[in-house]
Amino acid sequence: MTTEESLALYGLTPKEADLPQIRAILDREAEIERNHYNSAVGRKGDPRQREDDLAMLSCVQLFAYGDLQDVLRIWDAKQTSMDMACYLDVQFLCGAGLEETKAYLSTLDSENAKEALEYILKCEGGGDFNGFSPQSQLAGYRRYFEGG
């Protein structure tokens, strides 16, 4: 699957029925990145390259749908390598809204959720969420992927 194929199939704002496929694409891209990173540091891994913007597009699509269940999936993808950590915006975690995401993560009893929440709070304190709304963020992603 390429970025163009995913965009043609699901658009930026997918239907609920499309979410399992989009989640599988993001999981696959994260695994490829994880294996590529492991290979680069001397471990056995998959030498294939991930499709450049496919992980980002999958995050945009999940962000646009705004299901809180996807927050930790996106967080996991973000944590696969230093490249992915920089490449996937912290805002992707907050498709349901910043306050809603923080409240959701605070209810989960996992180290992953705690780390994601701490990261969001740190980024919020640093100004990464100034003027943030899911709608305005999606408009920026729309310009990036659709040119308008």
Give the secondary structure arrangement, pairings included.
Layout: H1 3-10, H2 19-40, H3 54-65, H4 71-78, H5 82-87, H6 98-107, H7 111-125, H8 134-146
Task: Give an account of the 3D structure.
The protein is built from eight helices and no strands. The longest helix has 22 residues, at 19-40. The model is unreliable at 41-48 (pLDDT under 50). The protein is mainly α and 148 residues long.
Keywords:
64% helix, 148 residues, globular, mainly alpha
**Mean pLDDT rating:** 90
The total of beta strands comes to: 0
Task: State which percent range the strand residues make up.
Answer: under 5%
Euclidean distance between termini CA atoms: 23 Å
Number of helices: 8
Backbone CA Rg: 15 Å
Helix/strand/pairing class, anyone?
mainly alpha
From N to C, what is the helix and strand string?
A: HHHHHHHH
The low-confidence parts are 41-48
Question: What does the main sheet amount to?
Answer: none
Shape, per Cα inertia axes? globular
Summarize this entry quickly.
The chain is an all-alpha fold and 148 residues long. It has helices at residues 3-10, 19-40, 54-65, 71-78, 82-87, 98-107, 111-125, 134-146. 30% of the residues are buried.
